[in-house]
Specification:
The complex is a heterodimer of chains A (about 160) and B (about 475). Chain A is mainly alpha-helical and about 160 residues long. Chain A has helices at about 10-35, 35-40, 45, 50-80, 85, 90-100, 105-130, 135-145. With about 475 residues, chain B is mainly alpha-helical. Among the domains of chain B are: about 50-100, no CATH class; about 225-360, Serine Threonine Protein Phosphatase 5, Tetratricopeptide repeat, CATH 1.25.40.10; about 375-470. Helices cover about 70% and strands about 0% of the residues of chain B. Chain B has 23 helices and no strands. Chain B has helices at about 5-40, 45-55, 55-70, 75-100, 105-135, 145-170, 215-220, 225-230, 230-235, 240-250, 260-275, 280-295, 305-315, 320-335, 340-355, 360-370, 375-385, 390-395, 400-405, 410-415, 420-430, 435-450, 455-470. The longest helix of chain B is centred in the N-terminal third of the chain and has 40 residues, at about 5-40. The chains are: A mainly alpha (about 160), B mainly alpha (about 475).
Chain lengths: ~160, ~475
């Protein structure tokens, strides 16, 4: 199927490789520039907190992967010699590129997300327990116990 | 009461307070440890991701060139381009990676410096206070100044101990964010809702890869932007109208149809939206309480004000959880207007933002029963309204949501509503396909109750069903 659907445009072939290379460079550059909040020496001072850095970072990675894959898909479709690829919608091709090329990076973020969610769950549980404790109520209960049932025999 | 009992009471109070304080301290310690664990685990992800980026150009070019050129691929061209890309990106990636690797150290240093600065500032403030007190009390440089200063220092020490004890007993903020930092908190951006957990779908509808990382859930848990937008509405000095509205909205009135608490809650929620017009949570709550105030079992309520508040909440780009809550409220409104399809669509939408939400799932199940009741369920309801006892075999035929709804049937028989939702309409209203057929039975069943006949059949039914609901998990969907 692939060989039947191919054509040759040898002059443009090298420029097609270059176009892909340029897209890779531009997107990774832009991503690194957008990561300034996490990758400069005074990142913490500027951002204020580690939480904010992580928060921004998680949002940036997803945006980066999505826009990068769409740019690549567009270029791949435009330059493809394979008819089947040219016929594939850009969004579908973008998803395929993400699934293949970003598999390791997405899995890394997913693992981290799961771990963090787990710890956050535990933190919420502890917070719930903390909010259930009340020193004043305990003191009043204790005092009531002293004045009430336990104290009655001596009263 | 004798003196001894009072003494014992005081001792008990002190002991109980001490035990509770210890418990709080242990919980606070655990919370700190978990937070440290979360951050320790989270920080390396930045560095790991940047390390992974080193290999990205290779895998991207490999896949894209294969897609582009198929069997006619030129490995020579591909390698040449890959080398150029790596030459250009390599140094920048290394610099970024170095900075990311130093983040944990920077965090520790920043904390230490902040603590040292705070300690120095406290010392200076304390010294300045004592100097001014000394000048005010002993303006002429009395010879007893040293003695007086020492006395005041002891008093100060006692005061400090008292403050310390107070802080240790109740240092937790009312609604602390799970990730709240010890450093000064900037206003954080609210993360836009992300449809997480969905896998990319291929042209034939097949799943192309594992589901996307659930970024939205984590980002939502970390982001406290929503909280900062509601800071005034939650501030104790402003009367905490948002918190008060939440509590009131959950307060149960003696009579189910009594909307007094909802009305007060609506006033408080309106106050909260005036204080913090950008607080989507307050608008969402306002939508809910306005809906409860306007609720009419048979679809005659005016929900325009509730809907207006819900739309306002959605326009503020809320976090996924709040987005889901607003959609659930809109679904309630649609259900109350007897627009079942719209309610179903909204509940499904809300689940895409908050997939694990129990309310949305149980409401969907309710809607399914209302719009398409099974004959077994109808037969069971008929028996209930006729005051007959349902046999064990018949209960086994029912699903959990059907049994839960069946528990409303005795209340229909007695002319009382249990909750606000599709089930009410199902049992009470003329327009209901089932209610219409049951109406005669319901009316005839009501009369003996009016005459004071014991309602033992219903009691047995409820007891039996509740046992079934708690003892069996086979009905859980």
């Amino acid at each position: 199927m692939v060989s039947k659907g191919t054509s040759t445009f040898e002059d443009g072939e090298a420029s097609a490789y270059e176009a892909l290379g340029r897209i890779v460079c531009d997107n990774v550059h832009a991503f690194l520039a957008s990561l300034e909040f996490a990758t400069t020496k005074d990142a913490l001072v500027k951002s204020g907190s580690v939480e904010e850095i992580l928060n921004k970072f998680l949002a940036s990675t997803d945006t980066f992967a999505e826009s990068f894959c769409i740019s690549l898909a567009r270029a791949v479709r435009q330059n493809a010699l394979v008819q089947e690829t040219r016929a594939t919608p850009t969004s579908t091709l973008g998803s395929e590129i993400r699934a293949e090329a970003f598999e390791a990076l997405d899995a890394l973020v997913a693992r981290h997300s799961n771990r963090t969610s787990e710890v956050i769950g535990q933190m919420r549980q502890v917070l719930g327990e903390l909010q259930d404790t009340n020193v004043l109520d305990a003191a009043i209960d204790g005092a009531a116990a002293g004045w009430g049932s336990r104290a009655r025999p001596w009263a | 009461m004798g003196e001894s009992s009072k003494t014992l009471g005081l001792m008990n109070a002190a002991l109980q307070a001490g035990a509770e304080s210890e418990k709080r301290k242990a919980l606070q310690q655990k919370y700190k440890q978990l937070r440290a664990q979360a951050l320790t685990g989270a920080l390396p992800v930045v560095a790991d991701y940047l390390k992974g980026l080193h290999h990205l150009p290779e895998s991207v070019l490999d896949y894209c060139c294969a897609k582009c050129f198929g069997g006619d691929i030129s490995f020579e061209h591909q390698h040449r381009i890959l080398n150029v890309v790596q030459e250009r990106l390599g140094p920048k990636l290394d610099v970024a990676l170095g900075a990311a690797l130093s983040l944990p150290d920077a965090e520790r240093n920043a904390k230490r410096e902040a603590a040292e600065f705070a300690q120095a500032a406290r010392k200076e403030a304390s010294a300045a206070r004592w100097r001014s007190i000394g000048r005010a009390i002993l303006p002429n440089g009395s010879r007893d100044i040293k003695l007086a200063t020492a006395g005041m220092a002891i008093l100060g020490l006692l005061g400090a101990i008292a403050i310390l004890v107070y802080r240790q007993t109740d240092p937790t903020p009312k609604n602390p964010a799970p990730f709240s930092s010890t450093m000064p908190q900037p206003i954080r951006p609210t993360i836009l809702p992300v449809h997480e957990g969905t896998a990319p779908i291929g042209p034939k509808g097949e799943q192309l890869t594992q589901p996307r990382p659930r970024l939205g859930a984590v980002a939502n848990a970390i982001a406290t932007g929503a909280e900062s937008q509601c800071a005034r509405a939650r501030a104790p000095e402003m009367g905490e109208p948002l918190t008060a509205a939440f509590k009131l909205s959950e307060t149960k009135a003696a009579k189910a149809a009594d909307t007094t608490y909802y009305k007060i809650a609506a006033a408080k929620a309106e106050e909260a939206t005036t204080m913090d017009p950008e607080c989507s949570e307050a608008w969402s709550l306002l939508a809910y309480v306005r809906y409860r105030c306007a609720y009419d079992i048979c679809g005659l309520g005016d929900y325009s004000a509730a809907r207006e508040a819900a739309n306002k909440a959605l326009s503020l780009e809320p976090t996924p959880k709040i987005h889901a809550a607003v959609l659930r409220n809109m679904a309630r409104i649609a259900a109350a207007e007897l627009k079942w399809n719209e309610a179903e669509r909204l509940l499904n939408d809300s689940l895409s933002y908050d997939p694990g939400n129990h309310d949305a799932r149980s409401w969907l199940a309710d809607l399914g029963i209302v719009t398409n009741p099974r004959p077994e369920f109808i037969a069971a309801v008929r028996k209930v309204v006729a005051g007959e006892i349902i046999e064990e075999e018949e209960i086994k035929e029912l699903s959990l949501p059907e049994m839960t709804n069946l528990l409303n049937a005795p209340l229909a028989r007695n002319g009382r509503r249990l909750n606000a939702g599709p089930a009410d309409w199902f049992f009470f209203c003329d327009g209901s396909p089932l209610g219409y057929h049951l109406r005669v039975d319901v009316n005839s069943a009501r009369s003996p109750v009016k005459n004071g006949t014991p309602d033992s059949a219903n009691t047995q039914l409820i007891t039996g069903l509740r046992k079934r609901l708690t003892s069996s998990s086979t009905f859980v969907e």
